[in-house]
Design brief:
The chain is of the alpha/beta class and 628 residues long. It has three domains: 3-220, 3-Layer(aba) Sandwich (Rossmann fold); 234-395, 3-Layer(aba) Sandwich (Rossmann fold), CATH 3.40.50; 405-597, 3-Layer(aba) Sandwich (Rossmann fold), CATH 3.40.50.970. Strands 3-2-4-5-7-6 form a six-stranded parallel sheet, with helices on both faces. The termini are far apart.
Length: 628
């Protein structure tokens, strides 16, 4: 037996012992494996990730990941980890993000060097902007300076991949084998950060992966997890309460970081006599019938949400990054003079000028803020004039929506027949999903925006949206998360025709790996959100539609194992199609032609400002005239 065979033989023994005892440390403590080992770097990566409870790998293997692939194979054969080989690296990145978003489970994206790494890197934008912790492990150039590596980045600079990936998040090139522990510590600090997680890029040079480390102390492999902060300082909380006691019209912007506050948010709203405005990532934090829920606000907000933002004099921000569309390119609060911002991230907490920043754990800080409000005297039990005015705006919004979500059929010239409007289709899908307790995924464009505008979710995990990157293809790829966690419920990825065609291979990979969900394609034969924006600004749509006609049902039906059906025929036809794919189980596709055109009943309008196109000059003048 040569040295390489001996190292691999010991790998099989370690894997068997870990499978028997449930963990690496359990196997060491039981004496089944020694605490020190002669082991390859590739296996140390697998063992180190196991120590952080990363048991799921997904990606595309290549010449830049053969050694790592072999190490994963040994541990998968022993029943410890799983590797999902998929057909596109961006799909892998999205699926890993979706898994963490929906279940909290960690996953690692594995690719080769070169184009594959770049495609996974592109997909990591969703993880970075939605603050989702995901490991990214890419092949990297060899360290022996033998000349250019195939598929490497161009040029002669050192650590090119580290320089590139560090622009998206934190990155570490495992140039020196014994630095594995430091690399794993760095990665855990990013992917398990309690407030601002994101992607971590571990770069493995091709020649370092199979390198053997002698007498490595396995107990040095660091665990994952991150410690949380306490509440903001008591003196700062008292300052905030004093400011809120002087307020007359309080609006609370609920960011994605506050999506799990639940009853504590209702307690805060009552204590400060405020109303809540949701961001796309926080719909469902309050039930829609809560009298203080003004629904979404922003560039694609609502009558009630944007009314509250426009006329409030005091703003409370909870766990929000103040993304351009969410706060109307910093013009969303023209009458606000007082801001209380609660965030664990100091930069986010001090975003607005003159803010009383409460930097600390959001939940603990809100709880302490409520307690201080109670100590200073209960709020009035009578409805304030501010609340009454906001509730009237909410009534107008509900009436507006009621008209646009009715399942009437509209004549569409491009389809040459009557079809459902997008708002109507989305409401039918939402109601069906609520009855079935099915999770919904959204990624970009008019489907995404309309979905959060009409949402009646009663809890935050009823749906997930890529509110950070709006990455076309994320929604379709999210169906793969159900193959990575068998405990996940059936899910619906609701996407536009453009988003689906960005990642149709997820249907194939879903069948291969046993996914349980359907992709619902709302097809208006164009990029509806951009066409509407162009028409609003310039009077006509340009280069956002074409004459391509795609039979999506036939396309999906060509994949054995996919149940593909048409959702035409109004509400009854769509519900019947959803029932069919759900009852069949496995992977499904429902194609729904939807209306695009000038009929106001066919879409949900925009209710806020945005610093794009012909609106730039006016928005910027307003923005610089506001003190915030």
């Amino acid at each position: 037996m040569n040295a390489q065979e001996a190292v691999e033989a010991s790998s099989w023994k370690r894997a068997a012992a870990i499978a028997e005892h449930g963990s690496l440390m359990g196997a060491i403590d039981a004496g089944s494996i020694p605490p020190t080992a002669t082991v390859s770097v590739a296996e140390l990566v697998v063992l180190g990730l196991l120590a952080q409870d990363v048991k799921t790998f997904i990606g595309v293997l290549g010449h830049g990941s053969t050694a790592l692939g072999r190490a994963i194979e040994i541990y998968e054969d022993s029943g410890i980890v799983q590797f999902l080989a998929v057909r596109h690296e961006t799909e892998a990145a999205h699926a890993a993000s979706a898994l963490r978003m929906a279940t909290g489970r960690r996953a690692a994206v594995v690719t080769s060097i070169g184009p594959g790494a770049l495609q996974a890197f592109a997909g990591s934008l969703t993880s970075a902007l939605n603050q989702v912790g995901v490991w990214h492990i890419y092949g990297d150039a060899t360290t022996e300076a033998e000349g250019p590596n195939m598929q490497d980045l161009p040029g002669t600079q050192q650590l090119g991949w580290q320089r590139l990936t560090s622009t998206m998040g934190s990155s570490y090139c495992l140039h020196t084998p014994h630095s594995i522990t430091h690399a794993l510590q760095q990665g855990a600090a990013v992917v398990d950060h309690p407030y601002r997680p994101g992607p971590f890029f571990l770069l493995l040079p091709l020649n370092v992966q199979p390198a053997v480390v002698s007498d490595f102390n396995l107990r040095r492999l660091p665990p994952g997890g991150g410690s949380r902060l306490g509440p903001a300082p008591a003196d700062r909380i008292k300052m905030a309460v004093q400011a809120l006691k002087r307020a007359n019209r309080v609006v609370v912007k609920v960011g994605g970081g506050a999506r799990n506050l639940g009853a504590l948010l209702d307690r805060l709203l009552t204590g400060i006599d405020g109303v809540a405005v949701m961001s796309p990532n926080s719909v469902g934090t309050l039930p829609p019938d809560n009298p203080r829920n003004m629904m979404v606000g922003g560039s694609k907000g609502s009558i009630s949400g944007n009314f509250a933002m426009e006329y409030a004099d005091t703003l409370v921000v909870l766990g929000s990054r103040a993304v351009c569309q969410s706060d109307c390119s910093r013009t969303g609060y023209p009458n606000v003079s007082t801001v209380v911002n609660i965030n664990a991230d100091a930069a986010a907490a001090t975003h607005y000028t003159g803010t009383t920043a409460l930097v600390g754990d959001l939940e603990e800080t809100v709880r302490a803020l409520c307690a201080e409000l109670d100590r200073q005297g209960p709020a009035s039990t009578e409805a304030s004039s501010w609340l009454v005015k906001c509730q009237e705006a909410r009534r107008q919004w509900d009436e507006y929506l009621d008209v646009r979500v009715k399942p009437v059929l509209l004549d569409d010239p491009r389809w040459g027949r009557e079809v459902l409007s997008q708002p109507a289709a989305l409401r039918i899908i939402e109601d069906w999903a609520h009855r079935r307790q099915v999770v919904r995924w959204f990624d970009a464009g008019e489907v995404q925006a309309t979905a959060f505008q009409i949402s009646r979710d009663r809890e935050p995990n009823a749906s997930f949206t890529d509110g950070g990157a709006s990455y076309m293809g994320f929604g379709a790829s999210a169906v793969m998360a159900t193959a990575m966690d068998l405990d996940m419920s059936y899910s619906l990825s609701v996407v536009g025709d453009g988003s689906f065609i960005m990642s149709p291979q997820s249907l194939i990979d879903g069948v291969v790996h046993g996914a349980r969900g359907a992709i619902v394609v709302l097809d208006n034969r164009r990029m509806g959100a951009i066409s509407a924006l162009q028409e609003s600004q310039y009077g006509m749509a340009y280069a956002t539609f074409d004459n391509a006609e795609v039979d999506y049902v036939a396309l999906a039906s060509s994949i054995e194992g996919v149940t593909a059906v048409s959702g035409e025929g109004g509400a009854e036809g769509l519900v019947a199609a959803l029932d069919l794919v759900y009852e069949r189980g496995g992977v499904g596709l429902v194609h729904v032609p939807v209306y695009y055109g000038p009929d106001p009943a066919g879409s949900i309008g925009a209710f806020g400002r945005w610093n794009v196109g012909t609106w730039v000059a006016e928005t910027q003048v307003l923005r610089h005239g506001i003190d915030l």
